[in-house]
Amino acid sequence: MLYESTLLRNFGLDFERLLDQAWYLSAMMLVLLLLYPLYAKNKRRFEFFIAPVIAVALLGFLFLHGQSLLNPSKRYELFYKYAFTYKGNVRAMAEICLGVVCWRICEWLKKIDFSKPGRVLLAIIELFGYGFAICYMHFMANAYVNTFWHRLSIMNAELTGDRSKIVDPSYDSRFSAVQFVLLAFLAVSVTITFSEKSIISGLFNHKFFTVLGQYSLYPYLLYSIFSANLPLWLQKWHLGDKLSTDTVVLIYCGLTFVTAAIVMAAHLSVKKLLRRRKEKRLAAQEG
After folding, report:
1. Cys-Cys crosslink for 167: which of 153, 188, 234, 255, Cβ 3.0 to 4.6 Å?
2. Largest Cα–Cα distance in the chain?
3. How many H-runs (helices) and E-runs (strands) does the chain carry?
């Protein structure tokens, strides 16, 4: 908990884990500390040359070594058996640099006065990228469910001694390489959205999407708790063979989303309380 709560896990202090997805925050902090001196020294050179080269080189490295963006805790070894860094750190640096490239293109798009057909074309490209992501998640969900049942079937096999019913997880081999295509499509769509140049740009400025953006962090950080423990709970309650796949998915999503909403509400309440105390303290000092 100590190294995870202080965001030091991806610095190599990976001794215990509560939230698997906390690697993202730790990797982001590490990579930003490494990239900031380069950016501060020459912003223009970093935006136009260094960031694109790093993004392309590291994404190419990730594709060459496993063809997947998953498994961020994998260690890349250097000089025989000495761990060099986590895969998540490489991915974080590649995607942050890609974000810099997207931001620079976004700023360029803002200066262009598109005609109505041009704005319609941008909207089509924008929606295609998001639609591709949704389709990927739909098919990927089946792979996740299959991996879930694989865990449960192994537990049943250990109890019964019958290993003939172990479910084969067909996960990485089917979908991993598509992740790089998805990343490219999302980079284009997000760039167009933030440029506010498509004909539907006003839609994403609605408060509803702002709230969704704030909420999205919490399910992302919490879902791994339920994906890891739900098979154990179902096994303990003897429900593994009685529930359909759709029912298990509904339980999993319900637990994740409800818990995320509770944690978000608690977090925002604490922030609001601290902000009020700070305002009162500043008012007392001024008085």
Report:
1. 153
2. 77
3. 10, 2
- The amino acid at residue 186 is L
Q: What is the pLDDT of residues 236-279, one digit of tens each?
A: 777 766 777 678 778 888 999 999 999 999 999 999 999 999 88
Q: Which residue spans within the chain are E strands per DSSP?
A: 75-78, 82-86
Alpha-carbon dihedral of residues 64, 68, 71, 76, nearest 10 degrees?
10
Question: How far is the C-alpha of 118 from the C-alpha of 197, rounded, in Å?
Answer: 9
- Judged by DSSP in three states, 80 sits in coil
Residues contacting 105, CB < 8 A, separation 6+? 191
Whether residue 233 contacts residue 248, with contact meaning beta carbons closer than 8 Å, is answered with no
Check: CB of residue 122 under 8 Å from CB of residue 193: no
Say which DSSP state 46 is in. Answer: I
pTM of the full predicted structure?
0.76
